[in-house]
Amino acid sequence: MAETISTHASHDEHHDPSFIWKYVFSTDHKMIAKQYMFTGMAMGLIGAFMAYAFRMQLAFPGMDVPLFGLVTPAVYNSLVTNHGTIMIFWVAMPVLIAAFGNFLIPLMLGCDDMVFPRLNMLSYWIFLLSAVVLLTSFFVPGGAFGGAWTAYPPLSAKAEYSLTPLGSSIWVVAVGLEFIAFLLGGINFVTTAMNSRAPGMRLYDIPIVVWMIVIASILFMASVGPLLAGAAMLFMDQQVGTAFFDPNKGGDPILWQHLFWFFGHPEVYVVLLPALGITADVICTFSRKKLFAYRTVLMTTFATGVLSFTVWAHHQFVAGIDPRMANIFTITTLLISVPIAELCFVYIATLYGGSISLTTPMLWALSFIATFLIGGVTGIFLGASGADIYMHDTYFVLAHFHYTFYPIAIIGTFAGFTYWFPKMFGKMMDERLGKIHFWGSIIPFNAIFIPLFYLGVAGQHRRIFDFSNYPELATPEMQAIRIFATVSLLVMLAFQFVFFYNCIKSWMSTEKAPDNPWKANTLEWVAPTPPPHGNFKELPTVYRGPYEFSHPDRDEDYWPQNEPA
Length: 565
Ligand code: HEM
Ligand SMILES: [Cu+2]
Hints:
The chain is about 65% helix and about 0% strand. The protein is built from 15 helices and two strands.
């Protein structure tokens, strides 16, 4: 409470904040959202650059990769490990939850800021510190951690088993700091959504994207505890001489796998839910309809969250768990595909009969459904323990989870970014460039990963540095497939310049975006563009459902079904 009061006081004090107060020590949720967004995107460039370096190595083993240099076996491992870690913890998390959550929650709830603005700022700075700590590991003796993003002991636990003893510990510390940052953020998000809504806004009037970010925050906070404890134990194994995970001294490496995946599977839903929410809102606006079966979607999301805590051992079918246990985890895994399939149908039902306009954000949102469906359907194969024993740790798994993470981290981000760009930066983006960027990303993405399903079924193992060392896996026609995937990646990366050019061009343009350019019906578009400190000229009163907010710019012709009966 004290926090809230002091913020209101500071609203008055800092009417004309200096550069430092405005951009560095800002407690304004919109500025913190941008800080998270830019940091996340910068880390995304680093993660993509790593993918470029190791995919070049896979296509042309032993070559001096342009702009990077030689990829030795140890460097390969570090790159793959940190690519995975960065993409999930330092890209998907900050962009989807922290950036969109910070930007949207107060605006969509019709309030002036987060409940704990200073905690919010602290969260960002701890997050930035964690990113810096992680990146320093590339410059220490031995290099960055190379024991995979899942950090299984014994490779990760003991100096004598690891090529990167110092890098491993820095990795654990960085991940721990990152978790703390998101714990602080999660507390803020949940409290704000529960306590700080505009007058008249019931829980059922909260737009689905806000709900999904809030539920994701709850999932994160509920799952991260055991892993934080596990990280502390791993750190002690590395540096203090304990043996929690060292079987030679009575420890149990499988314990780590349980701690990791008890967090790791819900974590997939932590990043998935915000992306699903963003997609839902974009689809509503551009099909001119409200979300189909809103309350059912909300209940489904809660149910998915609970179920996501019951599937973790599907990652451990080959770790020697009892086959009867494996059956149980097979069943829960197949069960969790039901609510996700339901959400896909909800999207299609929302589109059905709508007046659809294929803007750039809408193209991204539609492609989310198509690509995520491939990720989900291939997951059903892997969830069945019998099939997984054959496919485990092959490129089939790799292609499967990229078909879930790419829609989440990349498509979800671009859908949300291109949709809310006018509100965030006060300018419109160029639609033509936006569409070129869309097609230039989505076609090469499929060209990279569809062949990898094939390689996986053929038995190609993941995390292998040079397939010419494994003649049974490196037949000539398979090398051609690897080269095809790498070239597709180069094409995709080249098209990202179109995006950056579009951002800069739009941002520099002198033409101001209107307050509600898409004629959307959620509350954030009622605020002036870009929203000032404190967001709304006067706090709005809500008297309709989440997708029926009437606003000055509301286009009656577009929203016929929202008229009160
Ligand atoms: C930009 C396009 C991307 C490409 C071309 C790419 C490519 C790859 C490849 C080839 C590997 C496996 C290397 C090996 O096992 O030897 C890999 C691993 C991985 N990638 Fe990606 N990736 C991309 C984007 C992403 C995104 C967006 C995410 C998540 C949000 C992600 C998460 C991961 C994870 C978690 C791993 C596993 C790391 C490990 O084995 O420890 N990747 N990626
Ligand atoms: Cu899982």
